[in-house]
Amino acid sequence: MARALSISSSNLFFSFIFLIFSHATIPILGEEYSYVKRVDPKKIGMRKEKLSHFRFYWHDNVSGRNPTSIQVVAPPTNSTTAFGLVNMIDNPLTIEPKLSSKMVGKAQGLYTSASQEEIGLLMIMNFAFFDGKYNGSTFTVLGRNTVFSKVREMSVISGSGLFRFARGYVELKTYSVNLTTRDAIVEYNAYVLHY
Ligand SMILES: *[C@@H]1O[C@H](CO)[C@@H](O)[C@H](O)[C@H]1NC(C)=O
Ligand SMILES: *[C@@H]1O[C@H](CO)[C@@H](O)[C@H](O)[C@H]1NC(C)=O
Ligand SMILES: *[C@@H]1O[C@H](CO)[C@@H](O)[C@H](O)[C@H]1NC(C)=O
Ligand SMILES: *[C@@H]1O[C@H](CO)[C@@H](O)[C@H](O)[C@H]1NC(C)=O
């Protein structure tokens, strides 16, 4: 009886010591955070994830009276890859290669020359839609674009509206480049998982 008592009182002593120290270093198990709640994914429309394939043509218009792609930083050296160049874009996304075909959104963001050995761009773009149910939704494309490769691939990293929690990738192929004006049309095929 006396032995049992001494064990339990020493246990108590060690739990007491543990509590003092643990409080200062790690959160006690089961501690509540008033600003965090578990949510049923269905309540925010996350029911069935689907895969959609979008195809559009991206128009990089650097010439003309109203260019949609504007150099905002000139390459600071004479690098043959234009290393350091930055272009800001608000490029139309159309459903056919012709600029006059239906425009469903804009690719807004920038690209910058990020490679000193070859032409390799870092691209950061929000694909902002204004067609039908996609109006107001966006997904974000980020990746490396070696523009002289036949097919390039970049990531879809997330989105807003219908593209919340989106992920996926885009494959792009140059459709045409005017070597005089440097205007380019690029075919984008986007495979996007979203709810
Ligand atoms: C670029 O924009 C001009 C008008 O500013 C237009 O005439 C031309 O067709 C466009 N080029 C391309 C490749 O979209
Ligand atoms: C680029 O090259 C030209 C001609 O060789 C030279 O005059 C100029 O200073 C160079 N510019 C830079 C930023 O290196
Ligand atoms: C897209 O949404 C905006 C804002 O709600 C609205 O003004 C615009 O007319 C819509 N465009 C289309 C094509 O539905
Ligand atoms: C390239 O653009 C120039 C200037 O707009 C135009 O005259 C020429 O026909 C275009 N070339 C091609 C191959 O489209």
UniProtKB/TrEMBL annotation:
What keywords tag this UniProt record?
Apoplast, Secreted, Signal
Gene3D superfamilies per record: Allene oxide cyclase-like
Provide the leader sequence positions.
1-30
Which processes are annotated in GO (biological process)? phenylpropanoid biosynthetic process
Q: Listed GO cellular component terms?
A: apoplast
Q: What does this protein do?
A: Dirigent proteins impart stereoselectivity on the phenoxy radical-coupling reaction, yielding optically active lignans from two molecules of coniferyl alcohol in the biosynthesis of lignans, flavonolignans, and alkaloids and thus plays a central role in plant secondary metabolism.
Q: How does it assemble?
A: Homodimer.
What protein name applies here? Dirigent protein
> What organism does the record attribute this protein to?
Vitis vinifera
